[in-house]
From TrEMBL, chains A, B:
Entry annotated with the keyword Iron: no
PROSITE patterns listed in its UniProt record: SLC26A (PS01130), STAS (PS50801)
Superkingdom of origin organism: Eukaryota
Subcellular compartments: Membrane
Organism lineage string: Eukaryota, Viridiplantae, Streptophyta, Embryophyta, Tracheophyta
Residue intervals passing through the bilayer: 112-130, 165-187, 199-217, 246-267, 274-296, 407-424, 430-453, 460-488
Identification of the protein by name: Putative SLC26A/SulP transporter
UniProt domain STAS: residue ranges: 516-639
GO terms under cellular component: membrane
Organism expressing this protein natively: Lupinus albus (White lupine)
Cited PANTHER family: SULFATE TRANSPORTER
GO molecular function: secondary active sulfate transmembrane transporter activity
Record family assignment: Belongs to the SLC26A/SulP transporter (TC 2.A.53) family.
Key words, A-Z: Membrane, Transmembrane, Transmembrane helix, Transport
């Protein structure tokens, strides 16, 4: 059967070769520069076409839609009902129980007073509820941003010697982070965070997890004098040079609770239904350990405790923002990096769960929401917050239906702030260490790393660079190196585009890569190449040399027993654009090939390419109309009819030479 | 006739739809990571396949070729004859006549003793003749490198207070420049300079021409105290704040000689046969003006003259290279910047004239040649040299045939150094300015700029950035900004790849862009998109959103009267590679489309893409074998046979809905 239609095929080719009126390459529709610019701007900055939903709506509806666009809360709030509230209540309480100990621990990670962790779990969620478009995001401080902010700021200011200034710097850089995040959203530059690829984040998170866990050895071993550096070397130093400071009571307590937490986590992973085990575990451990510590007067046995915590809700902190003085550049830098990092985490988490539950989160809107959340936050004693991996996971598995669960959580935190703070007086620091370790250990994803290795070795390399960069140098440099490497790869792909030799699949009119489709065979007298990248300043030199080399190679291997090379056909379907340097390539090729008596034909040049070629040709027309074709098949058919040696149609099918 | 075969076509489609065994997508041949790595390295660093010419040659021939590869001189020297010598002699003398005054004035630009300019026009050309592969390059000191080196070094050391140390630093940074240039060549990183596109060079050259010309106002107006800065503002300042220093005699002399030179140049442009007019003009002017100055005792009329110059050839200067002490980092930095700048100028000039006369220059070899030239140079009292725009232009128009003209020039310079130095005692500085202006004015290419504007507005912008950057900020920053902008554009193209909707060209089996080919029409029930870029971390988010938006748009515009959208077909011919993030796109699309009851099919995934998809699929196979097709035609044919509504074959051809 296949044969029959294949013969029909070759028969069809015959006809067109005898009558070489192939389908003409259409001149693309005219476009003014302004039109092109408009399209470019739309595709680049408004690719999600935000105004689409407004079209053809009555004014009133438009207004409502507009309001809903700015405040997503207006979308779901009206439809809110008791049934939803019930599930949100449960999930809200659950994340609260996680948020409180987490908040305290992460604040310590950032070298800030523990209470700030709770402040930051109260105000920001309320802001997000109004502006955010995700239903599952659990908002609050996160380990990585806290860690980076802490380590970057302490390069200039010691949190022990000058805690007040340190706090001011933290709040100010939170302000800049928020400003920067909102700006990205408003300017619709959301795609910037796309440059943090999965590979990078994988390595970066694993690296940070390792560093953070090691940092916790301070609490876990009860060491008092500990390095403030983030890199692995100094940390290990201060661990093993301070063995005299190790306190066995702390170690025993720490290890045992760590084991409990890890087991709880393991249970929930194995049986997702038991999510509440790992979700509730931290709070349980805090309560138990606190009672224990209180009972045995832990502080007298070398087990350090949190100690007195102030009562009451967030004090305003506008007075704490300092925009002058010597540290400005530091806070801006810190704001930028922590901003980007927390944004990446927030957006990634939001997208993940949106995909899971099949709804959309608008990247740019999310950025504005998170940004404003931080701007507001920094005026009410909150340091940088975003959508957190751990909280959102718990929130989702606890069955959260809407962002309302964030409100519940922040109410729970509010109650804690108002009445329950004294209870944390005896909470041992070691327990916080254990909680942090359990949280971050989940960020190390070995299977994903293995998959990376399998799919793309280069991405694996990028991941390693991020990982070791973070561990041995510093969080920000590790990140920078990995990003640089990925961009370099993209640039290299542009500078060295693939050129593939095509052959005809016998019995069809299909031309494919000779090395991929073994049955494909070369057509005598032709060299058919496809160029697999836009042609621009960065690769014309290479492409010119490479194509000439192809022709030379073809001529050298005397593949063409009785045919000499007569036509070079460039398959241009994959050449999405050319720039002004690019167009010159064809002129140069024409001249170079002309010297060899070989002619150049182009197949399926795309609209933009066609336009630019025409413009460049004006006056001295180099690419002749009749050397443009829509398909390789038609090019071969109509060119072979003009071939010097009398061989067309059928023969083109039969006398194909194996490569 | 076309009709007949078109019906045959549709008929053919019929058959395959009834028998949907389309041509299978072949699994690509197995390749180990090592093999892939080897290919990658070859294509990236040895794309010119330098060893090809050696293959299959007898040993002796191999040795000869090898020697010729290292010393291009061996290629042309044996074939050298008197006829060639004649033209090389003329051009050699001509550039010598230009080189001598130029050398002196450029050395001044670099705050170095004038004699160094002549030293640098003697040794380096001889080195280049042996190693270089260009026939037109005129080697010697150049204005831009001289200026940059002079201004960078004087930031730390004053050439007036400590001329000896300044000289040492200049020679040492020349050494580093050479080292760096040679290293680029040896490591085969030649493509780095490809990032300096034509657009950039156009703007850069024009900008430098303006700046250098303005610098010459010093000599032309006879101003004694002049800024050493390169930007336009300070230059104009010192021109108009020093009006008291203007000397009318100098101005008269300068203007009149400038006019003579420009007229001479104009004549040679109009009548290429009269090239010798512009070629000989500089030397003539020098001689006449010198005699004139001697006759009228110019120095007593406020016309500054070169004055006494030491006699004798280059003294060795190995003892002047200092690799220790506080200035090391400065000389390395200076070496790097001047190195890359002079390299760009040299290679650009080399390539330009090679294209003009249709021969090849090997970028990497040129870099080694220029690099070694400078390394040798700095041991013989030469500061940084390269292929100079002005000299090469004169050299070429004077009819140089081989690099021998450089030998002639350096011999002429040798004779000058040994015997003729006293004659330059009375040469007025103003004449040097006039010569330089005439030389660089040719670098401003308005028509090319206009063509740029016509072809690619963005490249035009890049050119403007380079131009104004050079004029108002500085040469190196102007360059950096332009390069950054070009790279940004490339990255944007990657982040926002084009997705085009394809339609069927009636009466054929060809699918093309609906907006380009107006006659093309959509196939009911299908959405056929082609993705026009590699899929990677930087664009998956965009592509996912964009493709979903396409489907929504198609569903909204109820184009499909009685057909609902059932298949999304992705034409993957233009997707040259995917990375690990890229493969996830297809999984996500599958799920997202699944929710809409739409199925995803891929057409012609290239070998690399196919391999990675397979690897990513292992275990949970997401992309089903029978949803891979070789051509869109076959995809449509065999899918429509599985379509829910009973409509296949013939109808698919006829009931095409206009878009």
């Amino acid at each position: 059967m296949h044969n029959s239609c294949s013969t029909m095929q070759s028969h069809f080719v015959d006809i067109t070769t005898e009558v070489p009126e192939a389908h003409p390459v259409a001149p693309p529709p005219k476009q003014t520069t302004l039109q092109r610019l408009k399209i470019w701007i739309k595709e680049t900055f408004f690719s999600d076409d935000p105004l689409r939903q407004f079209r053809g709506q009555p004014l009133q509806r438009k207004l409502i839609l507009g309001a809903q666009y700015v405040f997503p809360v207006l979308e779901w709030a009206p439809k809110y009902n008791l049934k939803l509230l019930k599930s949100d209540l449960i999930s809200g309480i659950t994340i609260a129980s996680l948020a409180i100990p987490q908040g305290i621990s992460y604040a310590k990670l950032a070298n800030l007073p523990p209470i700030l962790g709770l402040y930051s779990s109260f105000v920001p969620p309320l802001v997000y509820v109004v502006l955010g478009s995700s239903k599952d995001l659990g908002v609050g401080p996160v380990s990585i941003a806290s860690l980076v902010m802490g380590s970057m700021l302490q390069d200039e200011v010691s949190p022990i010697e000058d805690p007040d200034l340190f706090l001011k710097l933290a709040l100010t850089s939170t302000f800049f982070a928020g400003l920067f995040q909102a700006a990205l959203g408003i300017l619709r530059l959301g795609f910037i965070i796309d440059f943090l690829s999965k590979a990078i984040l994988l390595g970066f998170m694993a690296g940070s997890a390792v560093i953070v866990s090691l940092q916790q050895l301070k609490g876990l071993l009860g060491i008092k004098h500990f390095t403030k550096k983030m890199a692995i070397i100094p940390v290990m130093k201060s661990v093993f040079h301070k063995t005299d400071e190790w306190s066995w009571q702390t170690i025993v307590m720490g290890i045992s609770f760590l084991i409990i937490l890890l087991v709880a986590r393991h249970v929930s992973i194995k049986k997702p239904k038991l999510f509440w085990v790992s979700a509730g575990a931290p709070l349980m451990c805090v309560i138990i350990s606190t009672i224990l510590a209180f009972a045995i007067k832990a502080q007298h046995h070398g087990i350090s405790i949190i100690g007195k915590l102030p009562k009451g809700i967030n004090p305003p902190s506008t007075d704490k923002l300092i925009f002058n003085g010597s540290h400005l550049s530091l806070v801006i830098k810190t704001g930028f990096i922590t901003g980007i990092l927390s944004l990446t985490e927030g957006i990634a988490v939001g997208r993940t769960f949106a995909a899971l539950r099949n709804y959309k989160v608008d990247g740019n809107k999310e950025m504005m929401a998170i940004g404003l959340m931080n701007v507001v936050g920094c005026t009410t004693s909150c340091y940088i917050t975003t959508g957190s991996f751990s909280r959102s996971a718990v929130n989702n598995s606890a069955g959260a239906k809407t962002a309302m669960s964030n409100v519940i959580m922040s109410l729970a935190v509010l109650v804690t702030l108002l009445f329950l703070m004294p209870l944390f007086h005896y909470t041992p620091n070691v327990i916080l260490g254990a909680i942090i370790i359990t949280a971050v250990i989940g960020l190390i994803d070995i299977p994903a790393a293995y998959l990376l290795w399998k799919i793309d070795k280069f991405d694996f390399l990028v991941m390693l660079v991020a990982f070791f960069g973070v561990i041995f140098i510093s969080v920000q440099y590790g990140l920078a190196m990995a990003v640089g490497l990925s961009i370099l790869k993209v640039l290299l792909q542009i500078t060295r585009p693939k050129t593939v030799m095509l052959g005809k699949i016998p019995g069809t009119d299909i031309y494919r890569d000779l090395h991929h489709y073994k049955e494909a065979a070369r057509v005598p007298g032709f060299l058919i190449l496809r160029i697999e990248a836009p042609i621009n300043f960065a690769n014309i030199t290479y492409l010119h040399e490479r194509i000439i080399r192809w022709t030379e190679e073809v001529e050298e291997n005397n593949l063409m027993t009785d045919f000499s090379l007569q036509f070079v056909v460039l398959e241009m379907s994959a050449v999405s654009t050319v720039d002004s340097s690019g167009v010159s390539l064809f002129k140069d090729l024409n001249t170079a090939l002309g010297h060899k008596g070989v002619e150049l034909a182009l197949v399926n040049p795309l609209a933009e390419v066609l336009v630019k070629l025409k413009k460049a040709d004006e006056g001295h027309n180099k690419i002749r109309e009749d050397y443009l074709f829509v398909t390789v098949g038609e090019a071969v058919a109509s060119l072979s009819s003009t071939m010097k040696r009398p061989t067309v149609g059928e023969e083109v099918q039969e006398t194909v030479v194996e490569y």
